[in-house]
User: Which sequence fits this backbone?
């Protein structure tokens, strides 16, 4: 079973569509401080979604308000994939190293200033971005597949993602 299949199954995809339920499930899979879900207004200079760890250790997933539920799911699942695949773990150590240099300042303010590239591809390696985005697309296909009327199109998307996943695994 691929990492994507396993994560999708563990999160209850495609049966679970509720964003908070997905975050709660993620918290059970990766025990730690609660994942906080925050909906934010669209702004052209803001990414579709971000995930960052607060100085307190809490994970905050911010996602832009969007009328399409599948888009919201995609964006949040992309961020949850970063948590699942451990992309935040190395930044945790880096974060602590950074904070130790500014002991007199509010840690969250320091982090906000230094995280100016949050959510863009600068925040994680391209590899991590690719993997998180692939998972979100994989989940899209599973949701679509679960909707009978879209099954043909969804199966095609799923197959393309599966092939892309396989190619990627073969390239290692
Ligand atoms: Zn990302």
Assistant:
């Amino acid at each position: 079973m691929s990492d994507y299949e396993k994560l999708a199954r563990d999160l209850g995809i495609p049966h679970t569509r509720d964003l908070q339920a997905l975050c709660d499930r993620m918290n059970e899979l990766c025990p730690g401080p609660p994942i906080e879900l925050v909906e934010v207004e669209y702004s052209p200079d803001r990414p579709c979604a971000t995930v960052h760890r607060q100085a307190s250790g809490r994970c905050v997933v911010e996602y832009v308000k969007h009328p399409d539920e599948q888009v919201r799911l995609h964006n949040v699942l992309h961020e949850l994939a970063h948590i699942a695949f451990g992309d935040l773990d190395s930044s945790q150590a880096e974060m602590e190293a950074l904070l130790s240099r500014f002991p007199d300042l509010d840690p969250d303010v320091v982090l906000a200033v230094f995280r100016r590239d949050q959510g863009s591809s600068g925040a994680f390696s391209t590899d991590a971005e690719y993997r998180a985005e692939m998972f979100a697309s994989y989940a899209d296909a599973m949701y679509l597949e679960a909707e009978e009327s879209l099954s043909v199109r969804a199966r095609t998307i799923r197959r393309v993602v599966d092939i892309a996943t396989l190619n990627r695994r073969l390239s290692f």
Remarks:
- DSSP finds seven helices and three strands in the chain.
